[in-house]
Design brief:
The complex is a heterodimer of chains A (157) and B (272).
Chain A: H1 5-20, E1 62-64, E2 67-71, E3 75-77, E4 80-89, E5 92-100, H2 105-109, E6 120-123, E7 133-135, H3 141-156
Antiparallel strand pairs in A: 1-2, 2-4, 3-4, 4-5
Chain B: E1 8-13, E2 16-23, E3 26-33, H1 38-55, H2 63-68, H3 79-94, H4 121-138, E4 144-148, E5 151-155, E6 164-169, E7 177-183, E8 186-192, E9 212-219, H5 222-235, H6 237-244, E10 249-255, E11 259-262
Antiparallel strand pairs in B: 1-2, 2-3, 3-4, 4-5, 5-8, 6-7, 8-9, 9-10, 10-11
Helix pairs in contact in B: 1-4, 3-5, 4-5, 5-6
Classes of the chains: A alpha+beta (157), B alpha+beta (272).
Chain lengths: 157, 272
């Protein structure tokens, strides 16, 4: 599961191009779309980020004056393919377009109640069981007390 | 998230080490089965402290707070902060804006005057636990859990042949569970509004989100599971349909009238 992190980081890095290029045209490079630039060294067991069959910047750049268009590699992720196009004037990135985004953004925006019956429903039942730990939205100081108590309980078991 | 309040408890047995400290306004517990160097646990909790130093929205001196006040640009921020903002952007795109880092959509973080508006709290805890798990694995630790205020990572097994059993908190009955899931490598995040009764605000409308009381997401990594749980809670019932369509995530939601909504693959993890 944790091996997936570099993929996500790389994917998100590609998306970051979309968000950030206006403010930092020189600070981003097309390689970020396919390179795990933000993966920490602590995750040494992680495999390299996948690369698509198209190497970064491959193919003849489209030239219009000093304006060039470079397509990044298609990066396959479990969430779908990601590909970014960068438009440069000289060495300045002037535009970044997403050619492919994972998970079909249009679909996620179109969600509606109509698809509700797709979900399985059942009635909530309270239960108890032998467990190792609890997932819940316990975050306040009250939650802290409870959580600590739970931790202490677990430690005693 | 005052570090002065940090408390530490370490219990050690030959085959088990459990350590809990108070950080991020909650308790973080690390439970290791089998041998582990003390230094490895120190490194994990140092990492958690660093995360607080970078991301706390409750302290004025963190990078996130400085970003919010415009004293720091994204480009000047640390790689960790940029990574988390990238992940937030990813979930924002996927959720059609239901997850919004520029909006305090996480009910656990009260907007503070002069602090904000950047608030990645809906995701950063999960991300930090993913990294912590990576740290432990790189130390050769293969069987452990980490639980930070209800967001959970498990790795390996509690004992040979067994799997980790994670209870999902019942939203109205503190000492009961709504379900139990099991597995070896799990990432389980729960977003809910049952504890303080807070409203969670829909960043798209500015109004309280309605429909779901809690959402639990099991994912391939906790950063996204955490973000998805926050987004789905904002989206309400349609959020579960959205979740159902996402790869690498399964969810269980509980509505105000006690109905449980399950995505198609949730039963894969469910024990009871």
């Amino acid at each position: 599961m944790h091996r997936a992190i570099p993929v996500i980081a790389a994917t998100a890095g590609g998306l970051a191009l979309l968000a950030n290029f206006h403010s930092s045209p020189s600070g981003v490079s097309i390689a970020r779309a396919g390179a795990p630039a933000t993966v920490p060294s602590t995750e040494s067991s992680a495999p390299p980020a996948p690369t698509g069959s198209t190497p970064a910047g491959s193919g003849p750049p489209t030239t219009a004056g000093s304006r060039r268009t470079l397509d990044g590699p298609v990066v396959p992720t479990r969430y779908g393919d990601v590909q970014v196009r960068v438009v440069l004037v000289g060495s300045q990135i002037v535009d970044v377009q997403a050619l492919k985004l994972p998970n079909d953004r249009a679909r996620s925006v179109r969600i509606s109640d109509e698809a509700g019956p797709l979900l399985r429903e059942e009635t909530l039942r309270a239960q108890s069981a032998q467990i190792d730990l609890v997932s819940g939205a316990s975050y306040t100081s009250d939650g802290y007390a409870q959580s600590l108590q739970g931790a202490l309980d677990a430690a005693r078991r | 998230m005052t570090k002065a309040l940090t408390e530490a408890l370490t219990t050690g047995a030959a085959d088990r080490t459990f350590r809990v400290e108070h950080l991020w306004g909650t308790a973080i517990g690390v439970d290791v089965r089998g041998p582990v160097r003390e230094g490895a646990l120190d490194a994990v909790f140092s990492w958690f402290a660093r995360v607080d130093d970078l991301f706390s929205t409750w302290r004025a001196d963190t990078e996130i707070s400085r970003l919010g006040r415009g004293e720091l640009t994204v480009e000047q921020a640390s790689p960790e902060v940029r990574t988390v903002l990238d992940l937030c952007r990813f979930v924002e795109l996927q959720s059609g804006g239901a997850f919004d880092v520029t909006f305090g959509s996480d009910p656990r973080v009260t907007p503070q005057p002069g602090r904000g508006p950047i608030d990645p709290s809906g995701l950063v805890k999960g991300w930090a636990l993913d990294r912590a798990a990576g740290l432990l694995v790189s130390e050769g630790v293969s069987n452990f859990t980490i639980n930070a205020g209800g967001d959970v990572v498990t790795h390996g097994r509690p004992a040979p042949g067994e799997m980790w059993r994670v209870g999902i908190q019942h939203p109205s009955s503190r000492d009961q569970l709504a379900a139990v899931v099991g597995g070896t490598d799990l990432a389980v995040a729960t977003s809910g509004r049952y504890e303080r009764g807070d409203h969670i605000i829909d960043p798209r409308t500015g109004r309280p989100a309605v429909g779901l009381v809690s959402v639990t997401v099991i994912g391939d990594d906790l950063a996204l599971a955490d973000g998805y749980a926050t987004a789905a809670l904002v989206l309400g019932r349609p959020g579960m349909v959205w979740l159902d369509g996402l790869a690498g995530a399964e969810g269980m939601a509980i509505t105000g009238d006690g109905t449980v909504l399950l995505t198609d693959g949730f039963d894969r993890f469910r024990i009871s």
